Amino acid sequence: MTKREQELLSAAALTAFKLNGQFLELAEHLARPAGLTATWWQVLGAVLHQPLSVSAIAREMGITRQAVQRTADVLVDRGLAEYHDNPAHRRAKLVALTPEGRAANSAIGPHHAQHARQLSGVLGEDQLADAVAALTKLSEALDALELSD
């Protein structure tokens, strides 16, 4: 690895860490009026279209299975999600939205649309799409790395 490659890896990581913080702050801002936290919204969003196991949610969101399990339990306790039997695995239940969870998730929509318009206005839609494509490509490249001790 050249010095430049090391600098680029560090710069990419530091920028991603900053972006993560910025997106979490935005997510908290968007979720709060709907009575959610960013974490709750993240898990509800993962099962918006279909029920998933806790492990599948964790893989999709890039967070630990334990963190998803704790969050799913809270969402179930609050009536925003429910557990369903999983035909593929007896012990691994599926997390699914309840009507209350779907309503809470939907309540975020107008605010989300407003912030999407603002961000697109700052960057321009094409540049925002290019940024998303670059971030996706970077994520895929990181997935392809062989991490060894």
UniProtKB/TrEMBL annotation:
Sorted UniProt keywords: DNA-binding
Organism superkingdom: Bacteria
Residues in HTH marR-type domain copies: 5-140
SUPFAM superfamilies: Winged helix' DNA-binding domain
DNA-binding keyword on record: yes
Gene Ontology biological process terms, A to Z: response to stress
Molecular function, one GO term: DNA binding
Pfam families per record: MarR_2 (PF12802)
Protein name: DNA-binding MarR family transcriptional regulator
Source organism of this protein record: Kribbella voronezhensis
